[in-house]
Amino acid sequence: MTTYKLFVLPGDGIGPEIMAEAEKIAAWLTSAGIVGFEIEQGLVGGAAYDVHGTAISDADMARAEAADAVLLAAVGGPKWDGVPYEVRPEAGLLRLRKDLALFANLRPAICYPALADASSLKREIIEGLDLMIVRELTGGVYFGEPKQIIDLGNGQKRAIDTQVYDTYEIERIGRVAFELARKRRNKVASSEKRNVMKSGVLWNEVITALHARDYPDVQLEHHLADSLGMQLVRRPKQFDVIVTDNLFGDMLSDVAAMLTGSLGMLPSASLGERNAKTGARKALYEPVHGSAPDIAGKGLANPIAMIGSLGMALRYSFDLNDVADRIDRAISGVLDKGLRTADIAGAGKETISTAQMGDAILAELQSSLG
Ligand code: NAD
Ligand code: IPM
Ligand code: MN
């Protein structure tokens, strides 16, 4: 059995509750001899700030660098609203993404058949939905310089964020999208705002040229980002792979989450470039949702996005597509049995806790693999 180093960062709010469920599954996979995990735990976000005064320590960054994969739950919360901007909880997550060069964020949105009525949209709009948002994760307005607030001295301040993209950044995320599309339904929708932004003009040019040169077999469409947001709630099943920048990808993936019923359903993978010699790549796996401070500590959180993120680690870091498929089927099976955490239950319906959902998914997985 191959053994991998998994660096686990539970973070804040519901983070520790949902991470415990993913760890249960990882521990069982190891004890059953399916895949070995050496698990180390670190601190990120507010949890790290409370101990180290920073959102992630250099020592934990080094452990993240050394791991085969990082699993992160969520960061942030009102407790840290007043801390300096540089050390706010979210800065820990952004440093991990930037320093590990995790430029490609894959955010799949699948509507499980049993949940077709949990979405705020009509069943026929979302039934059978299966799309993949490919979000550029280390560039754009998240990291562009200058990024500052200047005191103009007349009682006014000026806030500046800078949207920057270089050709190579657009090209490499475009490649990820086209390659994924070839293994799916062969369609890419690229999204920017070329009607307003220079970065949108370049994005469109680079994706168009890359497509013509290397991926003419894939169907490509261009959508203005505002219009794509509208299409996502109007007719989401028209999409297969959506490729977009850091900020638009952040917003559009929260929208896509609600098509599946709840933010608590969406996993993600953040991937770096493959090492040309070893084929290995840095990777971090995390739910799309945040730390849900409103329900933290109550056993109400849905652990499916977190468990799905472990599944994505098996798929994209450890080449265990079969086990990853079984995790997805275990999730689907539990939903088919009518088991629901509160976020996907619907008003007045019976619900189970975070740990009960984790246990049910593990039991389903054990019966398929045991
Ligand atoms: P959120 O995603 O934490 O919560 C939005 C809503 O969705 C809340 O009502 C919450 O209860 C619900 N929700 C989210 N995850 C759920 C789950 N697993 N099960 C059931 N319900 C769930 O977004 P927010 O409230 O805007 O942000 C809270 C904090 O999280 C902020 O500090 C934000 O910066 C941070 N955040 C972190 C990440 C991350 O760590 N990757 C992502 C998004 C937001
Ligand atoms: C996400 C989150 C993060 C982002 C925050 C917490 C920095 O919203 O992963 O979607 O904006 O990228
Ligand atoms: Mn987000």
Give a short synopsis of this structure.
By secondary structure, the protein is an alpha/beta fold. Helices cover 42% and strands 20% of the residues. The protein is built from 13 helices and twelve strands.
What does this structure look like?
There is one protein chain. The chain has 370 residues and is α/β, with parallel strands linked by helices. It has 2 domains: 1-103 and 272-370, Isopropylmalate Dehydrogenase (3-Layer(aba) Sandwich); 113-262, 3-Layer(aba) Sandwich (Isopropylmalate Dehydrogenase), CATH 3.40.718.10. It is built from 13 helices and 12 strands. The protein has helices at residues 15-31, 46-52, 58-66, 89-99, 123-126, 167-182, 198-214, 225-234, 246-259, 304-316, 321-336, 342-345, 354-369, and strands at 3-11, 36-41, 69-74, 104-110, 130-136, 144-151, 157-162, 187-192, 219-224, 241-244, 267-271, 283-287. The protein has a 10-stranded mixed β-sheet, sandwiched between helices. The protein has a two-stranded antiparallel sheet with strand order 6-7. Helix 7 links the parallel strand 8 and strand 9 (219-224). The mean pLDDT is 96. The protein binds nicotinamide-adenine-dinucleotide (NAD), 3-isopropylmalic acid and manganese (II) ion.
